[in-house]
Amino acid sequence: MTGNPGMRRTRRLARLATAALVVIIFLLPVLYAVMIAFEKPAHFLTSPLTPPFPPAAGNFGQAWSGADLGRQLVNTIIYSVTSAALSTILGLLIAFPLARRLVRRAPALYTAFGIGLFLPLAIIPLFVEARSLGLYNNLIGYILLHVEPGLPLAVVLLTAFVTSIPAELDEAAWMDGAGYLGYLMRVVVPLTRPALLISFLYALLGTWNDIIGPVVLLANPDLFPVTRGIYNFYGANQSQWTLLAAAIVIASLPVVALFAVSQRQLIRAAVAGSVKG
Amino acid sequence: MILGGAEETRRPDRAGARLRPAPRAARPRPARLLSRSSRLSMWAGLLTGLAVYALFGLVPAIGNLLVSVTDYTALPGVPTSFTGLANYKALATTQSPGFMSGLIATVVFVTGVTIVQNALALALAHRLRDDSRTAALLRVLVFLPIVLGVTIVGLIWILIFDPQQGPAASLFGALGVHSAFFGASGWAMPLVIGVQIWQNAGFSTLVFIGGLKAIPPDIYEAASIDGIGAWRRLRQITVPLLAPSVTVNVVLALVGSFTTYNLIYVLTDGLYGTQTLGMLAFNAAFGSAEADLGYGAAVSVVLFVMTLIVALPLMAWLRHRERRLTG
User: For chain A, how long is the longest CA-to-CA vector?
Assistant: First the structure.
């Protein structure tokens, strides 16, 4: 990896070029939207490409009230946190007996969940089912319908993790009379924490960013999550980009903040090749 | 998609085989150690999970078949009847426009996304794999679109390609090119493909980085010492040892682009030549007042079968390629 000074300089230039290219392709579009959010409408109409001086924050207040973003963000948080938590807990309750083969046909059941990673989301039958089970257009139903998509990944990941815990540990605890759920809580949960976290985060992102689900499964605007809310806001305010960009920024802030604290886990999981996008 | 998991879960099998003389002895016994109430809670948890999976995962997956042989509309007061293969016949005839153009749009979309996304991801992975802080930061950037989600990503790109005010319009305008971009046939599809790639390239990149990192560096060192050039190192070390990641990424991008339509929904709603079959199924069912869920379900079934027909042989071929390359 050494080489003469000329080669080293070429290499450094190449590295710089890569960095610049990635920033231009992946960050600049996002920054552009942030910039527009700080522009006054008149400024945007006359010179949309120049940064605003001084930046105006008025768009944010207008977008917040105009798009009902507060309520929608609360809805989104309730939907995604609850469904991701349920899906992670159920994932562990399925994965543990399967990994330990406490039941017959554990490998076959495991395969069934593996297949689930490739099942397409069949939104039409899901809609029919939601209607006939009374899960259409209500909070509980919407959460329940979003538990399943996170399950296959949780089961597959957690099975791998549980397998790495020595089985002697459960046998010893159970012979001492430890209860099943108590054992899971006190021993298995701490030992599988990374897998639990990854399952939870990916399930949360899936529900948080879902747009087809809220379009098909909800009708009452009070129940809309922020994805559908902001999409409708776009439909109603087309070309009012300063307002829309402010709404985009507000709507993405929570999930970007979450990403800022969890990026290491999310990215490491993807690098390990262990998760589906 | 797990890579190591299947391997690891099979391990207790082998361990069990070593401990017990008869590996297929009816069932392992550790459950016996649990008290009756503990066994009850184990079953309650497992069965609840299975029920959720069956009810909201498997039933809908099979449900498409059932809905596709009806004329269900979900409209109040409209009766539903069994129509046999009528929806499938409608697909094959010109009676229902959209299927042929949908098929073409799907082929273009899938081909474009699968090839370009993987090529771009491979290039990015090659540049962003090292342990430097810059590389780590750039990896965060390429992953950002996945976190932002399709709605935000879609709106950001609609803003950038706004025909009046967007920076893309200024850029193309300077070259004398004017277009409605997402609102123009001929432009919409390439742009939709581009945004789809932008949205998902980060994930493929990270999978490739995982693959590159799994190659032991001493192989390269040994090859360098033996005087093997960069090109031969690439062909004889990197390409073969990266084959498993190629399989994962190609299959994921292919199956994903066959079935996904959420980004297309946000960007164009299937207009201007971007109505892939997934988008068509959605729009037939939910896109207009005359909700035709049966037809939409039939399109979904055909799409699913098509995906399998393309993905399964491709997977087999990629696996075969892995074995051939690694010897």
Answer: 77
Instruction: Report how far apart, in Å, the C-alpha atoms of A56 and of each of A11, A59, A60, A78, B38 are.
Output: 42, 7, 9, 32, 61
CB contact under 8 A, B140 and A101: no
Say how many Å lie between the first and final Cα of chain A, rounded.
Answer: 34
For residues B80 and B73, is the Cβ–Cβ distance under 8 A?
Answer: yes
The residue type of A68 is D
In DSSP terms, which residues pair with B82 in a beta bridge?
B70
DSSP state of A67: T
Max CA separation in chain B (angstroms): 79
The amino acid occupying position A141 is G
- What was the ipTM of the complex prediction? 0.92
Query: Which structure tokens are listed for A262?
Result: 């969890």
* DSSP H or E segment with residue B160: helix B133-160
The Cα B88–Cα B282 span in angstroms is 16
* Nearest CB to A180; choose among B34, B63, B256: B34
> Tell me: the pLDDT tens digits for B106-115?
999 999 999 9
Task: Look up the pTM and report it.
Answer: 0.89
Question: What are the pLDDT digits (tens) for A245-262?
Answer: 999 999 999 999 999 998
Residue A276 buriedness (CB in 10 A; 0-12 / 13-18 / 19+): middle
Which residue in the block uniquely carries the two structure tokens 């497992």? B46
Cα four-point dihedral sign A57, A63, A65, A70: negative
Three-state DSSP state, B70: strand
Within 8 A of B162 by CB-CB distance, chain A residues are 239, 241
Chain A residue with CA closest to B76: the answer is A131
Closest Cα in chain B, distance from residue A65 (Å) = 19
DSSP state of B57: I
